[in-house]
Each structure stands twice: as structure tokens, then as C-alpha cells.
UniProtKB/TrEMBL annotation:
Receptor for prostaglandin E2 (PGE2). The activity of this receptor is mediated by G(s) proteins that stimulate adenylate cyclase. The subsequent raise in intracellular cAMP is responsible for the relaxing effect of this receptor on smooth muscle. Keywords: Cell membrane, Disulfide bond, G-protein coupled receptor, Glycoprotein, Membrane, Receptor, Transducer, Transmembrane, Transmembrane helix. This is Prostaglandin E2 receptor EP2 subtype. It comes from the Eukaryota. CDD domains: 7tmA_PGE2_EP2. Belongs to the G-protein coupled receptor 1 family. One of its GO terms (biological process) is adenylate cyclase-activating G protein-coupled receptor signaling pathway. GO terms for cellular component: plasma membrane. PANTHER family: G-PROTEIN COUPLED RECEPTOR FAMILY 1 MEMBER (PTHR11866), PROSTAGLANDIN E2 RECEPTOR EP2 SUBTYPE (PTHR11866:SF8). Residues 34-311 form the G-protein coupled receptors family 1 profile domain. The keyword Disulfide bond applies. Its main location: membrane. The lineage of its organism: Eukaryota, Metazoa, Chordata, Craniata, Vertebrata. The chain crosses the membrane at residues 23-42, 63-85, 105-126, 147-175, 195-222, 257-280.
Length: 379
């Protein structure tokens, strides 16, 4: 059973005079500026890649990242203005309309965008996982068309899940100070409690899947690096330009991985408090705390604000500067050269032409330093 304070929060009609919209306005502005800036950076990189004949694989990664940024921006634009309007009218979300439709819309939007952004991040992590761990399958079967199909499917599944409370499975309720609505995390009805736990379980599974994919990518990149060290001495000088391109390719993979890892960390920090609150409310029904629930909701809402800034900070230009600073390379050096020299430092001076693994005809990794055997050349 919820305490009277929590019931008051569910049906509150007016916002307390001591509550101000300042923090919400700052979060709204930061979310808009960050997401728009991230989209501009993505468009500049897309145009640059088009002029330079950028590869299909990089474009596929950027399609998924762009969809993630657009989703964050859309969520900010559809949710945050309602908070400001509520403060302006001095009415809670449930009081803005007699049918409580605004509160239900707010709760649906919060649930949808939290699920959709997490699912899109999993899709992006899975794309990197296939590209690094199963390159032959990736090159044969994974195309831009897969992204154009996967993204709408993700949105459709998330929408269907969020519409279940309108069919009686789950409920959206208001949280203090009256400017938040979300899934009822401690309902009295069993069916609503099942829905809340289902949401928390889905979010937890998405987090675990993303962490597993990123861990797999880290392991594969480490194996590629070890393979380079073992085969570093047998370099053919005529392959200099080819090896330079391969080193640049691996540097790009590391850049993608760094971005995904940091975004995953942010998602975990912002998501797990809400998941824990749902499970705690489910196990101990008499200790509901709207104050702690509100903190968890604020964590998950901050995610869409932090994400674009993480992308901006970890953009290639910043990473290139970091590579050159760490490796003490000249400012004008390319990222492939910086990455290659940082790897070569681990080996003898002869290992100046380290290269990323490429695929042979059997879809197996082969480095530029290793001459193919007769068995490798057989179909």
C-alpha cells in the first residue's frame, strides 16, 4: 500500500509555490543545443565522406548514430515543453485536462523514448559486434537496408509496448511535483505491477546485451592487436599505402568503440536507478518513496541531454587531438599514422608497417604482414 503522501502526488492539482522551472529550462536548452550540434557534426562528416568516397560501412554506423541523436532530440522537444507549460499555468499534468490525457501522453512519451534509445544503442553495438567479430558475414549480409528496416521495427515494438496501459495492462500516474508522469512503479493491481516489472526487465536485458556486445568488440580488437605484434616483423615495403589505409580503418573502429563505450556507461548510470526502483517497489510494497522515484526519473531524462554532448566531445577531431597528444605526434599527422605508430612502439623498429587484418577468400582474418598460404588461396 502506498502512503498518503504518494497518493497526494498522484492526484495533485497545483504546483507548490517553492518549485521553479529554472532547472527544467536549463535541461531543455542543453538538450536542444547538444542534439542540434551533434546532428550538424554528423552532417558535416557525411558530406566530407561523400567527397572523399567514404565506405558503406562507416555510413551504416552513422545512420544508426544519427537515428539515436534524432530520437533524443525528438524526445526532448515532445516532453520538455509540457513541463514549462505546467509551471506557466501553475497546473499539474493531470489538471491540465479533465481526462488526464496530458499525463498519459507524458508517461507514454517517457516510456517510449527510454526504450527506443536503449534499443537503438543495442542495434548500434550489435552492428559493431558483427563488423569486428564476423567480418565475412557482415560484408555479405549487413547493408544500409538492414538499418532502414531495423529502425522502424524498433520504433513499432516500443510503441506497441507503451500502448499496453491504454488496454488495461499497466498504468501511467503522476509524480511530484506534478510535472512528471510515468509508469506506476508501485501499483496496487497485480496486472499493473507485472507491467512495471516487465518494463524494468526489458531495460535490464538491453543493458546486459549492450555491455556484452561492447565487451566482445574489445576482445576482438585486442586479438587483432596481438596478431599484429606476432606478425610485425615480416613487412613488405611495397604495401605502405595499403597498410596506411588499414591502420586508418582500425583507428576508426577504435573511435567507434570509444563512443559506444562511453554512451553505454551513460545509459547504465541513467537507467539502472529506475530499474532498481521498480524492483524495490515490487518487493517491498509498503516502502514506496516518490522522492526516490523522482530521482530515478530525473536520471533517465538526463540521458537524452548528456548523449549528444558525449558524441560532441568524442568526435573524431577531438579524438585525433588526443591520439596525437598521447603519442606525441605532430599536429598535422593523420589518425592512421598516429594509431599505427602507437602500436609500432610496442615492437621493434622494423615494425613500422603494422596493418589491420583483412579478410581472405574464406572470411578469415589475414594481416598485411603475413603472406597467404596455399590453403588460404584455395576456394
Amino acid at each position: 500500500m502506498g502512503n498518503p503522501e504518494n497518493d497526494t502526488c498522484h492526484y495533485k492539482q497545483w504546483i507548490d509555490p517553492d518549485k521553479t522551472p529554472t532547472i527544467s529550462a536549463i535541461m531543455f536548452a542543453a538538450g536542444i543545443i547538444g542534439n542540434v550540434a551533434a546532428l550538424v557534426i554528423l552532417e558535416v562528416r557525411r558530406c566530407r565522406d561523400s567527397r572523399n568516397g567514404g565506405g558503406r560501412r562507416r555510413s551504416l554506423f552513422h545512420i544508426l548514430i544519427t537515428s539515436l541523436v534524432v530520437t533524443d532530440l525528438t524526445g526532448t522537444c515532445l516532453i520538455s515543453p509540457l513541463v514549462q507549460l505546467s509551471y506557466h499555468q501553475n497546473k499539474t499534468l493531470t489538471e491540465m485536462t479533465h481526462s488526464k490525457s496530458v499525463c498519459r501522453y507524458f508517461g507514454l512519451s517517457m516510456t517510449f523514448f527510454s526504450l527506443a534509445t536503449m534499443a537503438l544503442l543495442l542495434t548500434t553495438a550489435l552492428e559493431r559486434c558483427l563488423a569486428i567479430g564476423y567480418p565475412y558475414f557482415y560484408n555479405r549480409h549487413v547493408t544500409k537496408k538492414c538499418a532502414y528496416i531495423t529502425i522502424p521495427v524498433v520504433f513499432l515494438l516500443c510503441t506497441l509496448f507503451c500502448l499496453l496501459p491504454f488496454a488495461g495492462f499497466g498504468a501511467y500516474v503522476q509524480y511530484c511535483p506534478g510535472t512528471w508522469c510515468f509508469i506506476d512503479m508501485n501499483p496496487k493491481e497485480t496486472v499493473h505491477r507485472v507491467y512495471a516489472n516487465l518494463y524494468a526487465s526489458v531495460m535490464l536485458l538491453l543493458v546486459l546485451a549492450i555491455v556484452s556486445c561492447n565487451g566482445f568488440v574489445v576482445y576482438q580488437l585486442y586479438k587483432m592487436y596481438q596478431r599484429r605484434r606476432r606478425n610485425g616483423g615480416s613487412v613488405i615495403s611495397t604495401k605502405r599505402s595499403h597498410n596506411e589505409r588499414r591502420s586508418t580503418s582500425m583507428a576508426e573502429e577504435v573511435e567507434h568503440l570509444i563512443l559506444l563505450v562511453f554512451m553505454t556507461i551513460i545509459f547504465i548510470i541513467c537507467t539502472l536507478p529506475l530499474v532498481f526502483r521498480v524492483y524495490i517497489n515490487s518487493l517491498w510494497t509498503n516502502v514506496e518513496s516518490h522522492r526516490l522515484d523522482l530521482i530515478a526519473l530525473r536520471f533517465i531524462s538526463v540521458n537524452s541531454i548528456i548523449d549528444p554532448w558525449v558524441f560532441i566531445i568524442l568526435s573524431p577531431s577531438v579524438l585525433h587531438f588526443c591520439w596525437s597528444s598521447v603519442c606525441r605526434a605532430p599536429v598535422g599527422i593523420t589518425r592512421g599514422s598516429v594509431f599505427k605508430s602507437s602500436l609500432a612502439r610496442e615492437n621493434s623498429p622494423a615494425n613500422l608497417e603494422l596493418a589491420c587484418p583483412s579478410l581472405d577468400s574464406n572470411g578469415q582474418f589475414q594481416t598485411a604482414q603475413t603472406l597467404p598460404t596455399a590453403e588460404t588461396l584455395l576456394p
